[in-house]
Amino acid sequence: MPSRADSEPTVAVEEELPEFTGAFPFDRFNEMQSAALPALLSREDNVVVSAPTASGKTALAELAICKTLAESGTALFLAPLRALTNEKESEWERFEERGYSVYVVTGERDLSPRRAERADILVMTPEKADSATRKHETARYSFITDVDCCVIDEVHLLDSDRRGAVLEVTVSRLRRLCDPRVVALSATMPNVDDVADWLDAPEETTFAFGEAYRPVPLNADVKTYTHGENAFADKYRRLYRALDLAEPHIREEGQSLVFVSSRQDTVQAAKKARDEIAERDIPMGARGDYDFHNDAADLSNDTLRQSVLDGVGFHHAGLSREDKNRVEQWFKEGKIQLLFSTSTLAWGVNLPARCVVIRDTKLHDPLEGEVDMSPLDVLQMLGRAGRPGYDDMGYAWVVCDRGDADKYRRLLRDGKEIESRLAGELDAHLNAEIALGTIRDIDDVMSWLETTFYYARAKSSPDTYDAGSDLRERVSTTLSELVADGFVERDGLRVEATRLGQLASKFYLRLETARRFADLAERCEAAAGEGDAADPIDARDLLSTVAGATEFDSVSARSDEQDAVAAVLGDTPDELDAGQRKVLAILRAGMTGTTPAELKSDAWVIRQNALRLLAALREFLDNLAPGRFANLACRVEARVEHGISDDAVGLTAIDGVGSGRAGKLAAAGLSSPADIVRAGVSGLVSAGLSEGVAEQVVTNARELPVVVVDWADFPDGIATGDHDMREVTVANNGGGARAGLRVTVNGREMTAKPAYLGQTTLPVAVFGADTEELSFTVEVTFPDHPLDPVTSSRTVTVR
What we know:
- This protein has 799 residues and is of the alpha/beta class.
- The chain has 31 helices and 25 strands.
């Protein structure tokens, strides 16, 4: 491991990169950067660097990028958070000024393939890169195979429960696709050699810079508090403890950064801290600064506007970008002396403080219940202590219950080895690689295994990974289970994903959830065959299927929430546990926009995850069940998203009509796109829309399908024993759309087929059966639009 004694002298930017002079915010690289510089600029090998927080790793990323640009290549920067991708776009305008194109790849809808293809520097999150590499054969995402250098910022994200496996398989897949140079950067980690082994970085380009390279020495420790029975009161006990630790530094004109568990907690802690600071008579605040007072008036958040004048601020992802930028700037300038933040700031901008306190080591996750803050987050936060150039020492504290004190002391003493999270999700990721075609036979399976960090880490620490048995055997067993469960087909040595496996991969589903969705599709298929004799499949079945998905297994329901759940669902028995019933209640209540107050804190996160699962379920039903069930799922999805009644959900099929406008239109008695067209602009204006919006809504409504069923000379009677073949024409007088067509007689299905309307004919057999009358119904449903089914019926008397 490099130390100050054997590190190289500092190097001037102009000396090594004359063409990029001015692209760096300094004239000379520091000792750590200078030591790693030859490996980055003079070699082609992959590089792994572990170094303390705030030691200057960003410049190493930029060095790798500069080398790539100088060789006319394309660089990909993987940032741990989406918020950071936007910051890089702004920060790297200095590359734009030198004629290089920087493009941040974010949401699907915003993607410009042309810009991405022409970019010199691509910036993505691991999740977006995962999506891009999965779709690399499409014209839209083919740019990802042209990457020459991939820089992984914060590679210790590999150890994240939720995101680590995604980063791991994405980098492995990218290396198989185009074999870019990989430069992996990390905060201090004990097992940097395992990451180097994974990435095939030789010893000469693997660096573990120790604490001697931290720009400000760190004094980190644990402080305990007396735990009570009331969780709300405990927050204040921890807050007072945090203020005790921060107060000496604030009195010496230092600054303190306090991390709490939620956005709401940043606000409430700041409010309470202002009162406590006044009570303790701590000299801080800038109410006498006229210019600062005027600047603060521009803040859009009212509470923040009052707080910053007292020297206390808060920072979280829900603030506007302008407010966040101002808070960060004022903290750097010392105008804010005490800042409360969520953990996202630790992974974001370099915003050090003399004193850092973690007030909350536990947090409430809507999908997981109460969980411990990850060790990675803890170390990342504490690493923010100490301002280079201002402080001789940084002070970092973890405030926790006495029962957790030893655990955090061990973490501060020994650090955290980076582990692979792939083992827990091996089946889903192996299925995905087979569905993508990157694995085509048994040899490919084993080759893929060897490209993973899981394989490298298991070799290094076999006891940790229970790898006494052959890892190859474990993967082979997983493959056999995929075959047995219907996700993969095997023909000799060849392997190929089934439709079920492809759908599971496309929607990033846990395989238990995919199986659950497929089982519902089988029930729908059976119900269609049994006609009126079958138990009907309705919105409640779809919502119960989603609420019982494995993705919601860890959701918990507190006692006050269980009362609210019962009020929504009643006492109807079902297969769901308490947490899943909470999910179901949130979804059912959300369809009408009446979510109980007790459930609102978790409702948004649960609803967003449910919408993803509903979209997946819709496609499962579209592929594996009769078309009308996909339409049902589409309508349920729209109701959950917009909170609108069943009879008006079809309005949301109109481009530009969301929950607000749909509510206005429904209140005026308009419940379908056909109603909108009939009402015209004047009718929509009367319903409360502006004339310009009304004109656009009417135009968009006309682009949706308008179905006309023509029975022609269909008979009204038939003799017993006779047989007559007729045709019914289904025409579309509006915009084209995929449709499911179905003919039933007395509730039994006769004919069903998909079609793109257009116009089509349906053969209908009229039999003189042993019954008094025959009721024929043509049903048209649209799997891609939340439109009500269109039905038309005729009755034939049997004489």
